[in-house]
Amino acid sequence: MMALSKKMLEREPSEIEMLLPWHAAGTLNARDARRVEEALARDPELARHYAVIREEFAETIGLNESLGAPSARAMQKLFAAIDAEPARKPSAFSSLSTRISGFFASLSPRTLAWSASLGALALLLQAGVIGAVLIKNQSSTFETASLSMNEPITRNLAGDVRPPRALVRFTPDARISDITALLDSYRASIVDAKGGLFRLQFGDRAMSKDEVAGLISRLQGEKIVNLAVAAQ
Amino acid sequence: MSATAATDEVLIARIAQGDRLAMQVLYGRHHVRVFRFGLRVVRDEQIAEDLISEVFLDVWRQAGKFEGRSAVSTWLLAITRFKALSALRRRKDAELDDEAANAIEDTSDDPEVAVAKKDTGAALRKCLSALSAEHREIIDLVYYHEKSVEEVAKIVEIPENTVKTRLFYARKKLAELLKAAGVERGWP
């Protein structure tokens, strides 16, 4: 066991000294960890103190690990209690956030970075659409702020109609600027993406079959589009 | 579950939707640490086992309210601490006093101490067990549960500076117990 000098123990601990246990556990932020490292390098007494702390750290882990684990009874009791709970209705908000989390988790960092740029543009576009709708509705005197999360927002914004959607694959050499320009010219937003296929939504109103066919045909004629098919 | 392990935060979101499988995964990930943290507070395996059922049932019920301001493991430990202290309050004070006194006597007078002098690791573990609940708690949170100053402050509900000083004095007390047990290392 390391012996520490009385001088160190009798005085009030310094900030660095008080951080030593977290340094041993590796839970300091980079800045504090660097400060501690520098202090340890220039102060042998502090370094001895740190060695004592590392012993405590190791033995605390040993002690906790020796406590064993709970029996299966705890888990059985828990799930029996969960089964006895009333069935819950999933909230649309949580469901949406789960889907969003899952969607982004499934993307590669490169795709994510690329999609982020598109997402920013889509957000601007959406803001434009929402802003236009708000200006259009300015004549209303008073409205409550309630919003049913069980229905898509587009229902309210577009008067109970659904704009057309398409699955689109862009050519490998398509640049972000080309894609954003295309989205802009078609008033399209990205709904989701999977395996290189993007589900796009066009405008904010429903279209007739002929209009959709014309839209798809125009998309297929775009230089940066490999594939375009109507979708739900 | 996807091939990539879901983060605790994703599991909590799924639990909020009533996903039992996500609950099993989260339980599998954290129940041992929750149990050990609770056990170190209540010092009774039966009560500690009951605690983990209560903690995870709370998670099942409250998952929709989790705001992600702290790590899920920090949230779990905070719930565990609250429930463990409630369980302790339900026990008789006299019972606790006896237990604490016995634990301290063990480290100083028991013949085991003679053995412990040759095995400083064992002596350290014995003295760690003899600390007050408050001191045990903070040492466990920092060393075993690897919680940062900010996270400990959230779990224990004290200011960050108090976290630092409390750990310092917990370690000082540990050094005193070691000295009383015949292990000299200069403290205090």
Short recap of the structure:
Chain A has 232 residues and is of the alpha+beta class. Chain A has helices at residues 6-10, 15-25, 30-42, 44-65, 72-84, 92-106, 109-136, 153-157, 176-186, 209-220; strands at 165-170, 188-194, 197-202, 225-231. Chain A has 2 domains: 10-65; 108-231, 2-Layer Sandwich (Alpha-Beta Plaits).
Describe the structure.
- The complex is a heterodimer of chains A (232) and B (188).
- Chain A has 232 residues and is of the alpha+beta class.
- Chain A folds into 2 domains: 10-65; 108-231, Alpha-Beta Plaits (2-Layer Sandwich).
- Chain A is 58% helix and 11% strand.
- Chain A has 10 helices and 4 strands.
- Chain A has a 4-stranded antiparallel beta sheet with strand order 2-3-1-4.
- In chain A, helix 7 (109-136) packs parallel to helix 9 (176-186).
- Residues 136-160 of chain A have low confidence and may be disordered.
- Chain B is mainly alpha-helical.
- Chain B has 2 domains: 1-91, RNA polymerase sigma factor, region 2, helix turn helix motif (Rna Polymerase Sigma Factor, Chain: A); 92-188, Winged helix-like DNA-binding domain superfamily/Winged helix DNA-binding domain (Arc Repressor Mutant, subunit A).
- Chain B contains 10 helices and no strands.
- Chain B has helices spanning 8-16, 20-42, 45-62, 72-90, 93-108, 112-116, 120-130, 133-144, 149-156, 160-180.
- Mean pLDDT of chain B is 84; it is low at 103-109.
- Classes of the chains: A alpha+beta (232), B mainly alpha (188).
- At the A-B interface, helix 1, helix 2, helix 4, helix 5 and helix 6 of A face helix 1, helix 2, helix 3, helix 7 and helix 8 of B.
